[in-house]
Specification:
CATH architecture of the largest domain: 2-Layer Sandwich
CATH superfamily of the largest domain: Pseudouridine synthase I, catalytic domain, N-terminal subdomain
Number of strands: 17
Oligomer: single chain
Structural class: alpha+beta
Strand content: 25-35%
Order of helices and strands: HHEEEEEEEEEHEHEEEEHEEEH
CATH topology of the largest domain: Alpha-Beta Plaits
Number of helices: 6
Largest sheet: 9 strands, mixed
Helix content: 10-25%
Bound molecules: uracil
Length: 234
């Protein structure tokens, strides 16, 4: 089989992208860099990309530690960059999609996958999957504000579902919400006459960044994927 066809069949990008990888000298066969996209490979050949041997993966699960100024769309918007630029050495960047976007000024956890079945389940409102945010508020949050956030607040024409608040300090909380509305956390803080100064997504269900640094991405571990799938199947 042709090298470019083999690689693109394994979800490493379109034939055009693979041609670029070949041009960039990052593809080798049996440890030798290959420059021809029509190079014929045999089943015993070991193909590697960025020195990593290629293995067939049908579904890809990635988490990314997003900094500010990056938008959750594949194309840059205005003077903001696209998150795709942060996945520059991820061969699957074009085929995975974000599950629950973040605003350009919200940071930390982005989860991306091409597993449509999992995405469908995780975003289903009945599943009540919690997203946990670190919130730094402009003003102190009193007991009444916390109660309101925990029970319900009205944002636009919509009443929020109960959420979980963990107090860190007078102006800092962890807020876990199970819904997904546009600018939901910012609007919830506005509903208690406050303002978000800094917003970071700490977790989605069992998924956390752990020691992943800002700007970096990693594949999910099998244990993390299995735990998430178990949660979704219950
Ligand atoms: N809520 C917001 O207001 N912004 C985000 O990016 C995510 C949740």
């Amino acid at each position: 089989m042709r090298l470019d066809k083999f690689i693109s069949n394994l979800w490493y990008g379109s034939r055009k992208q693979v041609a670029k990888y070949i041009w960039d000298e990052i593809i080798s066969v049996n440890s030798e860099v290959i420059f021809q996209k029509d190079f014929e490979i045999k089943f015993w050949d070991i193909v590697s990309i960025w020195e990593e041997n290629i293995e067939y993966k049908e579904f890809i699960y990635v988490i990314l530690n997003k900094p500010t100024w990056y938008v959750s769309s594949k194309k840059p918007e205005w003077w903001h960059y696209s998150y795709i630029d942060l996945l520059h050495n991820c061969p699957y960047s074009e085929i995975i999609d974000i599950v629950w976007r973040l605003d350009f000024d919200t940071t930390w956890l982005l989860f991306l996958t091409n597993d449509g079945n999992l995405t469908h389940k995780i975003i289903h409102p009945k599943k009540d999957i919690f997203k946990k945010y670190y919130v730094l508020a402009e003003k102190s949050l009193n007991e009444k504000d916390i109660k309101k956030l925990e029970n319900w607040v009205k944002i636009d024409d919509f009443i929020t579902k109960p959420s979980i608040v963990e107090i860190i300090s007078e102006t800092e909380i962890y807020l876990s919400i199970s819904e997904w509305k546009f600018h939901q956390v910012k609007k919830m803080l506005e509903a208690v006459w406050n303002k978000v100064l800094s917003l970071k997504r700490f977790a989605i269900a069992n998924l956390e960044l752990w020691d992943l640094k800002i700007w970096e991405w990693r594949y999910l571990k099998n244990e993390e994927i299995n735990l998430l799938k178990n949660k979704l199947n219950n």
